[in-house]
Amino acid sequence: MFTFRNIAHCARQQARGYATASKPQASKAGRNAAIGGGATILALTGWFANAEEKAKEAKDKLVPPTKALKADEWVDLKLVEITKINHNTSVFRFHLPEDNAVSGLEAASCLLTKYKGPNMEKPVIRPYTPVSDDEQRGYIDLLIKKYEGGPMSTHIHDMNVDQRLSFKGPIPKYKWEENKHNHVALIAGGTGIAPMYQLCRAIFKNPNDKTKVTLCFGNIAEEDILLKRQLEDLEQEFPQRFRAFYVLEKGPEEWKGGKGYIGKELLQTVLPSPESEKIKIFVCGPPAMYKAISGTKKSPKDQGELAGILKELGYTEDQVFKF
Fold first, then answer.
1. Taking the complete model, does pTM exceed 0.85, yes or no?
2. What does the alpha-carbon distance between residue 29 and residue 136 come to, in Å, rounded to a whole number?
3. In which band, very low, low, confident or very high, does the pLDDT at 4 lie, cut at 50, 70 and 90?
4. For domain 183-322, is the CATH number 3.40.50.80?
């Protein structure tokens, strides 16, 4: 039975045969043909090797993945890569214990991180939503902005490759089901885009899910618009189902999007009407944004009363979810 290795071996044998079979007085055209034939054989050998690697990857995907994180136990993961996004935000890649492992998260859920410094009485625990796909094997990516005085974000930004951080999860937030809503609106600020992007991935990678999505994304400056390329890709691929509106606090003169803050006029214009059936409004951002848009949460398990612009526009508590 021939395999890619058998074929590649035969190809190399043929290449040697062409080289040794040439006559001492071979013409220039003959020599060129032999060289060209050898190059072709080498190219074919590379192609076969690449095809064999792809076949191995496909086979690996048939093996059910293990879930790396645990909801009731801390797991230490090693930092393996840091990608700088802008002056205060980077993507931190943490390797899962096994190459075949996934985080175990699903839309919409998050994980917890834990760190205790040498002079700290209690450890710092903070929630994050990975920006890597929930089905990604081998690693998770965290998009983290460094906040002045923020103990966890500062610690992670000070970490070096090969250092470890403690994780626990998944922590369920909002159980997503295909076509659970006809239209959802995502109102995000800064790194609050992470859980929104998790929802978008779940919706748009599922061919059976026909949900429409409207995103209102507020930031300070244009360089702060995180995941913009990925969001633009969604707009191009699903122009009838995904729209993104960007608002900058410090937009340049040439900026064509909104300026200032996400306000009542924009939301009234682009959000689905509160009288619409099967809609949901998701909010995630800094405290000032929650206060202005939806009112703040009392705790991770208590959404608190609906207030702010969304209440003024006539939405009900059942129609709004605060991450």
1. no
2. 52
3. very low
4. yes
